[in-house]
Amino acid sequence: MSQFCKMYGCPNPNLPEQEYCDTHYLRPYTEHLHPKKRLLTAGSILQTAAKHMEERAATYDQLQGERSIGKTVTMFNTLTGAGLTDEQGWLFMTCLKMVRAQAGRYRADSYEDGAAYFALAGESAAQERI
Q1: pLDDT value at position 52?
Q2: What is the pLDDT of residue 39?
Q3: Do 83 and 67 contact (CB within 8 A), yes or no?
Q4: Distances (CA, A) of 18 to 14, 31, 49, 56, 77
Q5: DSSP state of 37
Q6: What DSSP letter does each residue of 54-108 carry, written as one string?
Q7: Neighbouring residues of 94: CB distance < 8 A, sequence distance ≥ 6
Q8: pTM value?
Q9: Mean pLDDT per segment of 10 residues, for the chain of length 130 residues?
Q10: What is the DSSP letter of 121?
Q11: How far is Cα of residue 40 from the mean position of the Cα atoms in its chain?
């Protein structure tokens, strides 16, 4: 496989931004392993989730990172009358990532984003319920 991802500075222009080729995406975590035993660890998934959160802070120009759930939940509640909290909005997004993790080929970002969303749900819970 000669495709590489933009996330790590790869030159292939055919992959959308922040998309990963399977081989290159695994390489930073598994270069020391035999090619047939390349597995991500829970720790590497959490580290990458934290990195994604930091990158989204720059992308969305918010010092604390991506915190769009408040506006999203307000819009959803206005549209549906559901009455979700921010915590419930993040939990909803976690469920979305859990469903996506079971659909099609393995994609590490479903697990990374799911970990990040669950952490954000915990943050919201602490703010809303303590």
Answers
A1: 86
A2: 61
A3: no
A4: 12, 21, 13, 11, 30
A5: G
A6: HHHHHHTT-TT---THHHHHHHHHHHH-----HHHHHHHHHHHHHHHHTSSS--H
A7: 114, 117, 118, 121
A8: 0.68
A9: 46 47 45 50 88 81 78 95 96 96 88 94 94
A10: H
A11: 15
Measured CA to CA, the distance from residue 111 to residue 106 in angstroms comes to 10
Find how far residue 76's CA is from the centre of its chain. 21
CA 72 from chain centre, in angstroms, equals: 17
């829970």: which residue's tokens? 42
- pLDDT (0 to 100) of residue 2: 39
Question: End-to-end alpha-carbon separation of the chain, Å?
Answer: 50
From the CA atom positions of the chain, what is the Rg in Å?
Answer: 17
C-beta separation of 58 from 89 below 8 A: no
